Amino acid sequence: MTLVYLRRGILAGLLAGLLAGLFGFAFGEPVLDEAVALEEGSHAGGEHTEEVFGRGQQKAGLFLAMGLYGAAVGCVFGLLSAYFRGRVSARSEWVRSMGLAAAIFAGAVLSPFLKYPPNPPGVGTDPETLAARTAAYLAMVALSLLALFFAWRLARQLEGFAAYARHLLVGAFVLVAWALLSAVLPDAGSAGDAPAGLVWSFRLSSLGTQAVLWVVIGCVFGVLGERAEAREGRGVSNLAAEGGSR
Q1: Which end of the chain is more exposed for a tag (fewer CB within 10 A), N or C?
Q2: Residue 52, pLDDT score
């Protein structure tokens, strides 16, 4: 069963990566071009470093990179789906898949985005603090996912409570955990003098690309799971019918 979920996740992730790459190409690349032009303009007259890959090559490689990234993420998603299959009750594979995708998006993307929103190239980047900022971002991702895992465990412990009470308690736990993480981890760096419209266009396009990735992974994985269950159900019905006719 794990191997089936793994193959299903890789397929869903590959398709999701390509569609997310298409979204990024349509909405993110124009903003990135503007940011690169702004960075080059600020360095006009100074030392110029030639890029290993030009913007044309970078755009062409976007789909390959997102496809590989999506397949890798889908592989992890498939393993997690196999783990939670017998531990999370759901009306269908579709509901379970979409719920897991939403939880991972919230922990690995949305929570870090609210604390450390991405900046365009050359904006708010201090090479001396790069390692510290990267470590803080990765810590936010890991701890946010860990908080969601404990929220799920808490929800299981509260199964005897009324639904509204359980939802309120789990929601409060998530909000308090996020507030504590935001207070403990260092603040994000300033975006400097970059135009606010450019910065937020880049941030929203980045968030949108990740949203497309996780929505498509959840949808495709869920559809494949529903079709597999339908085939298994038809197989059981056919066996029962054959047994009854003998």
Answers
A1: C
A2: 56
